[in-house]
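Side project, low priority. Logging it here so it doesn't get lost.
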Amino acid sequence: MKKALFLILPLSFLFALWWRAFIFFSLPASPKGSPPSKVLIPEGAPFSEVARILKERGVVRSRWWFELYGRLRGITGRVKAGEYLLSASMPPQEIADTLVKGRVITYKVTIPEGLTAREIASLLRDKGIIEDEEEFLRLAFDREFVRSLGLEGETVEGFLFPDTYFFPHRCPPRLVIQEMVANFRRVYTPELSERARELGLSDFEVVTLASIIEKETGRSEERPLISAVFHNRLRKGMPLCSDPTVIYGIEDFDGNLRKEDLQRPSPYNTYLFAGLPPTPISNPGKDSLLAALYPAPVDYLYFVSRNDGTHYFSSNFRDHQRAVTIYQRHRAGSRRGQGQAGRR
């Protein structure tokens, strides 16, 4: 009898342990229908900390059992940091798979055409996509990082493609930039690159020109005309005379472009210096990229704002001056945002 009892007790203990493990490993902490909650797993958190967080949020039954489960599966070093949507009605295996595969919550963010890298960094910070705006900008203007992306120049300005993205909160700036540049490459195909060579332009020059077109007009139908003006001017060796390039070179621009700004020497002052500015001045969309590559077949050299979002185009200086008189009378002293190509 004692011998039988001696065998029954450990077997009962093992069975109870097995049953406990079966319940934990196979069954959720709560019946189906438990509402999901956001769970933040910090960067670099050890698995014991992950298990503690899950227990505190009521997602798992036991911190100890989940830690043991992780060790048995060999996943203790494979959990990805981020914000997750987890529920107590999820079995431990599903929770573990979610953490290991990094199925984090993503948030929709739309980057409009024509923003600068600094404006994009500010927008991403305001949306909670990145925490460190300065790190984003450091990388955006870091030559080594830019070259690691296979880009010319010393900045990613121009190559942060405007689009709708889905990023997790607190996403590393490096990953955000890499995704936006990768999206640019999906849009700027080898065929477009070949077209650039036909025009005698590098891809970097095309993007720079497109960035100016993007800032000069918000009208898709006008972009090939704006492009034609700049192509014609470049061909003739004339300054582009673009207000947005001057604005880009002004630190802390207050919204008013003054006469003295147009006379201030700057690599971005296309009134004083012929040719393209040294870098793109914004991040253009596909329409502006296509316009830069396919200018309208016209001989325009000038345009001036009609003050309604459209422009008047001229082929000679006399007609341009007449248009300036008509459309710019009330703008004496200072000008905003989009200017007039060809003041001279």
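Brief comment: The mean pLDDT is 88.
Revisit when time allows.
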